[in-house]
Structure formats: C-alpha cells, structure tokens
Amino acid sequence: MADIFISYLQQDRRRVKPLVDALIAEGYQVWWDLEIRAGESFGRRIEAMLKKVRCVVTVWSQHSVDSEWVYAESTRAKDRGKFVPIRIDEGIELPLPFNNRVVPFVTFFKISMLRGPFGV
C-alpha cells in the first residue's frame, strides 16, 4: 500500500518529480498517475488509491488550480482528513474551500514539511 498520493497536474510533472524522488529516497511508498496502466479505468484506480493512502499531497500551481481532477482529489482528501497542500508557484489563488488555510510555498522539497499528523 502506498503511504502518499500525489495530486498534481501532468503539465507540472517535471517540477513534481523531485518531490516524488525525495519521498521515495526517504523510504515512503508514493503513488502518482504514472502507475496507471494502459486500458485501466483511471477514475476507479484514483478513487481506490485515495481510500488506501495515509495522506494526499496536493501540489498547487498556476496550472493545477484550474484542474477538475486536482480539485476532486483534494476534496476527497480533505473530507477524509488526509489533505496536505503545498504550492510551487507564488501569487496563485487557491480554489474554494482550499484558500482558508496556510499553504506553504516551496522552491525545494524538504521532507520534514510533510511530517506530522499523518505519520509520514
């Protein structure tokens, strides 16, 4: 079972990969959409993984704030108490209801930022 689900927009994949690599190097099991196989129902797979993981790291960017999938994944995570948001772009307006909390802006990925109530 994966510990962490990464919610992001594919357009940001190059910028998100260092986070994934850092988490894996720390020994965490990370799930992101590269693990969806051809012909697999991605909606069902995503829903199943959102139920199984310990936390969902949402990577908010100038692109992902407009993504219906990132919004849906983040909503599920928030409803289940598994939501861990970060921003990789400054000056972006997060969609409701995600704009009512402090969301750290990161230019590098420090794993200690994700440690906390999820045991991650």
Task: Please explain how this structure is put together.
The chain is α/β, with parallel strands linked by helices and 120 residues long. It is 30% helix and 14% strand. It has three helices and four strands, in the order βαβαβαβ. The longest helix has 13 residues, at 13-25.
Name a few traits of the molecule.
120 residues, four-stranded parallel sheet, alpha/beta, 4 strands
Tell me the major beta sheet. Answer: 4 strands, parallel
Strand content: 5-15%
Q: What's the β-strand tally?
A: 4
Provide a count of the helices.
3
Q: What is the H/E order?
A: EHEHEHE
Overall body shape = globular
Q: Are there runs of 5+ residues with pLDDT below 50, and where?
A: none
What is the CA–CA distance across the termini?
13 Å
Q: Kindly report the average pLDDT value.
A: 82
Helix content: 25-40%
Rg, alpha carbons: 13 Å
| SS-derived structural category | alpha/beta
Across the major sheet, the strand order is 2-1-3-4
